[in-house]
Write a structure and sequence with these properties.
The chain starts with a helix and ends with a strand. Helices cover 14% and strands 53% of the residues. The mean pLDDT is 77. By secondary structure, it is mainly beta. It has a domain of 118 residues.
Length: 171
């Protein structure tokens, strides 16, 4: 390995370490209530480590639909809400959420630790509707749509053979 390549890899490593340090300092400001990301588990599948070869880009579209009419606590037990001003009737609610997360991934020709340096951006666009009622009283409904929290990250992808791929990254 030439000196220039070695210096470049050390520079990339120092940049990644600096990014990890900064992300640790900013973790309290990010959305997600201490989960580290604003995307629920299940968006990825068994192909998440299979990235294209160097100098290519791909676009992935995640469509997530969530509907609920029950409220659960942290242990998974069903909870009920009451409305004291109305004589404590049970509060019924329905929530519908539809999110389309658009992900762009660029795999570069830059080699780091034998793998290809990559970066990605996720732009979530969502719609949500909440309806509530307490007994005979309709408490109304509200809907909202717009752009969610944008995420970006870097990583390294390795392709040891045609059928085996793996990646490591930072979001």
């Amino acid at each position: 390995m030439r000196n220039e390549e070695k210096r470049f890899e050390i520079g990339i490593l120092l940049l990644l370490v600096a990014l990890l340090f900064v992300s640790g300092q900013l973790s309290d400001v990010l959305a997600g209530e201490n989960y580290g990301t604003n995307y629920a588990g299940g968006n990825e599948d068994f192909m998440m480590g299979a990235l294209p070869p160097a100098d290519t880009s791909i676009f992935i579209n995640y469509l997530v639909s969530y509907n609920s009419s029950t409220l659960r606590d942290n242990a998974g037990r069903t909870q009920s809400l009451t409305a004291p001003p109305l004589g404590n009737p049970k509060v019924d609610f329905k929530i519908n959420v539809l999110v389309d997360a658009l992900r762009f991934i660029q795999v570069t020709k830059v080699k780091v630790f034998g793998g290809d340096l990559l970066w990605h951006v996720i732009l979530p666009v969502g719609y949500q509707k909440l309806s509530m009622s307490a007994g005979p009283v309709d408490m109304g409904s509200q809907s909202k749509y717009g752009l969610g929290d944008i995420e970006a990250g870097v990583g390294i992808a390795w392709h040891p053979c045609k059928t085996f791929h793996h990646a490591a990254g930072w979001i």
